[in-house]
Design brief:
Helix content: over 70%
Number of helices: 12
Largest sheet: 2 strands, antiparallel
Oligomer: single chain
CATH topology of the largest domain: Four Helix Bundle (Hemerythrin (Met), subunit A)
Strand order of the largest sheet: 1-2
Shape: elongated
CATH class of the largest domain: Mainly Alpha
Distance between the termini: 38 Å
Structural class: mainly alpha
Radius of gyration: 20 Å
Order of helices and strands: HHHHEEHHHHHHHH
Number of domains: 2
Strand content: under 5%
CATH superfamily of the largest domain: GntR ligand-binding domain-like
Length: 256
């Protein structure tokens, strides 16, 4: 088995750890991760034709069934398209499903650029601030209490992983409290954004940043609890913007 995509599997495992899910590991997932990462990283450029099945079978040493299932999965994610008498072509990037957790993980494994993090933050602001406003209008008492309890867990987190896990739980609860199933559907994007941000710079390692991050999440929870949609929207915007600014600042420091 070729291990060129091993780092990408590491990113996927990290996301699974933070979200509390177990990532299945089998031949299909190994082939999927190696090929997917190779496409996103540009080893197989947009518009290029993947090697023939015979070459891929020899490379990965798997059955034809396993290879075909991996290729079908990549096609479902918008990365490739099989054409008769031509072969399997890598599709343009604008056809890729960037909301897919694997596609996001492959981008993250490349070492996210500031522009990539900014794009994630912009999409989150566009969606999550409205989720917060809807949550303020529709939340149950249990959900309001859950948000406040999660903020306390964030404040007491002893490791970056624990903090990121509680932060992710917080945003998932906001999405659920919105009562809109489409809000919850962007959970993969939120997971990736938080994983990237906390891998680059966790507030747990900076007391002042931790205090500030907890405070703005408490403001979101308080606004939702008070059914104040305007305040909830603004506090969520601040939380996302501050998280991006902290990660982007740390990336710039590392360049210098």
């Amino acid at each position: 088995m070729d291990r060129s995509g091993g780092r990408a599997r590491h990113s996927g495992d990290l996301i699974a750890i933070l979200s509390g899910r177990n990532r299945a590991r089998n031949l299909h997932s190994d082939v999927l991760w190696d090929l997917g990462f190779a496409i996103v990283s540009g080893q197989y450029p947009e518009g290029s034709i993947l090697p023939p099945d015979t070459e891929l079978l020899e490379r990965f040493r798997v059955s034809r069934t396993v290879l075909r299932e991996a290729l079908k999965t990549l096609a479902a994610k918008g990365l490739i398209e099989a054409r008769a008498r031509i072969g399997t072509r890598v599709l343009p990037r604008n056809r890729w499903n960037l909301f897919d957790s694997d596609v996001l993980a492959w981008h993250f494994e490349l070492g996210p650029e500031v522009s990539f993090l900014q794009s994630l933050a912009e999409v989150r602001i566009g969606i999550e601030i409205e989720a917060a406003a809807l949550a303020a209008e529709r939340r149950t008492d249990d959900q309001a209490a859950g948000l406040l309890a999660t903020v306390e867990l964030m404040a007491k987190a002893g490791t970056p992983e624990d903090f990121a896990r509680h932060d992710l739980d917080f945003h998932k609860t906001v999405a659920d409290a919105s009562g809109n199933p489409f809000m919850a559907s962007i959970s993969a994007l939120v997971e990736m954004a938080l994983t990237a941000a906390f891998t680059i710079s966790s507030p747990v390692n900076e007391p002042e940043a931790l205090t500030q991050t907890v405070a703005v999440h408490r403001a979101i929870a308080d606004a939702i609890s008070a059914r104040d949609a305007i305040a909830a929207r603004e506090a969520m915007r601040v939380a996302i913007a501050e998280g991006f600014a902290r990660a982007a600042g740390r990336m710039e420091e590392r360049k210098n």
